[in-house]
Amino acid sequence: MDSQSQTTSLQRLQNVEKRIVKVLELAGGVMDELARPVGPRKDLVQSHCLEFMQLIKDIQVALREEIKSACEYRPFEKCDYGSRIANEICYKKVDYVMSQLDAMKQTIDEYHAAD
After folding, report:
1. Looking at the structure, do residues 55 and 23 belong to the same domain, yes or no?
2. How many domains does the chain have?
3. Contact 30, 48 (CB under 8 A)
4. So which residues are the signal peptide here (predicted)?
5. Other residues' Cβ atoms within 10 Å of the Cβ of residue 37
6. Which helix (H) or strand (E) holds 24?
7. Residue 9's pLDDT band (boundaries 50, 70, 90)?
């Protein structure tokens, strides 16, 4: 991924962040409206809710696109994270098998001691 596409990706993510802030403002506006002593104005609540839902949809679409584009390149090809995790998992599996074998040996030893 070149620096130009990284920049535009960051810009798109900043736009998503702005939409999230707007969503929170809309939610706060609806809460304020619902808390009015004279009751909420239906048209205002409805317009806020419609805008809220549209922004949520836009945010989801934008994030899906960013995730998809992020998966199209591999910036950490030389990263050993995957192999380190796989090694850690194998170590845990071997450790578990060894504990099971130790328990079996103890059971066998107890059996022979009972004879």
Report:
1. yes
2. 2
3. yes
4. none
5. 4
6. helix 3-34
7. confident
Classify the phi-psi angles of 108: left when phi > 0, otherwise alpha if psi is within -120 to 50, otherwise beta.
Answer: alpha
With tokens 């994030």, the residue in question is 63
pLDDT band with cut points at 50, 70 and 90 for residue 68: confident
pLDDT higher than 90, residue 7: no
Considering only CA atoms, which of 58, 39, 40, 61 is closest in space to residue 50? Answer: 58
Alpha-carbon span 6 to 19, nearest angstrom: 20
Q: Are residue 22 and residue 35 in the same domain, yes or no? A: yes
Q: Round to whole Å and give the CA distance between 38 and 32.
A: 12
Q: What is the DSSP letter of 25?
A: H
* Whether residues 32 and 1 fall in one domain: yes
